Amino acid sequence: MIDILIGALASGLASVLDYLSAHVLTCLVPAFFIAGAIAAFVKKDAILKYFSPDAPRHISYGIASVSGTVLAVCSCTILPIFAGILKKGSGIGPATTFLFAGPAINILAVIYTAWVLGFDLGIARAVSAVLLAIVIGLAMALIFRSTDIETLKKKAMAPSVAGACEEEKPRWVTPAFFALLVGVLVFGASPLEWVIRLSIVYILTLAIAVLLIYYFDKDEVTDWGMETWDLTKKIFPILIGGTFLVGIIAFFLPPETFQPYFGNNSLGANFLAAIVGMILYMPTLLEVPIIGTTFGYTTGHMAAGPALALLLAGPTVSLPSVLVISRIMGAKKTAAYVALVIVFATIAGFVYGNGIVLL
């Protein structure tokens, strides 16, 4: 019994060391700084104000579908924001697009997926999340057209307040700042010689420092630091504890256990993965070690299609979040949303896993 316990704890510790020692410095640390910068320097209100039912669709759905990269939130954090934008008069389509895309295209999760599970799967996750968010939102708007009609009637009866935002720095500064941060991430994790990598990262860091000194005020830099720390303290401990737990689970349930269910790219395997994703609650980033270790994607026991289906369904819906969503927009809309997520996650996994090219 003691040997089993020691073996389980050793498996959990090995899982933590395997994931974090290989990816913390080169992936997670730069990613946290990027996510913190997005949270600090991109105005959230400027994004959310375009979700009205009468806004041009290419604008409302386009912005909503990439909102996760701006807001850097997880499935639990997205729910109060979703409730807020619905209350402010958002269309049901853009709102559900936002609800899906928020956690699905979380910048931290996408980067972590690409670095740990493979660049191809990371790109597939990002692209599929954007496309599925738009399709699901459009489907919800089509199914519940009467909801938008009522929202527009209420909007017509209420006064509108417009806000203004002035540029305080040259337009090129913020894009250049983000480009330099991404450069640190890319070159820091590149296969180049360590001397070359260190030199490039050093130069990029100096450039970032110059921009911060000459173009950002003290409050902005402080806000960036606080946002980065806030994300780190919320996510990093859960990631460590969750990865340790995943290692223990893998000791008792090796990846071979799940191979008969997720080891191929059949429609049934993808559907089952989407269902499992809908049931499980996976905090931000924890879906990566779960798929990589528990279900055995990194060891070849889980096929690519089910892995993508689980990555798409898991972060966006779970039994706890479904209960909350039903209180926000009712059982009928919630059931339709969950069904759409499962169906389209299944289709996306099947298409990706079987190498089908949609023209």
TrEMBL record:
Assign the protein's first listed, main location to one coarse class.
membrane
Query: Which controlled-vocabulary keywords does the entry list?
Result: Cell membrane, Membrane, Transmembrane, Transmembrane helix
Per its UniProt record, what InterPro entries does this chain match? Answer: DUF318
At the highest ranks, the source species' classification is: Archaea, Methanobacteriati, Methanobacteriota, Stenosarchaea group, Methanomicrobia
Q: Which residues cross the membrane?
A: 20-42, 63-86, 98-119, 126-144, 172-189, 196-215, 235-253, 265-283, 303-325, 337-358
Lineage top rank: taxon: Archaea
**What is the protein name given in its UniProt record?**
Permease
Q: List where this protein forms a coiled coil.
A: none
Similarity remark: Belongs to the UPF0718 family.
How does this chain sit within the bilayer? Answer: Multi-pass membrane protein
Matching entries from Pfam families are given as: ArsP_1
* Compartments where found: Cell membrane
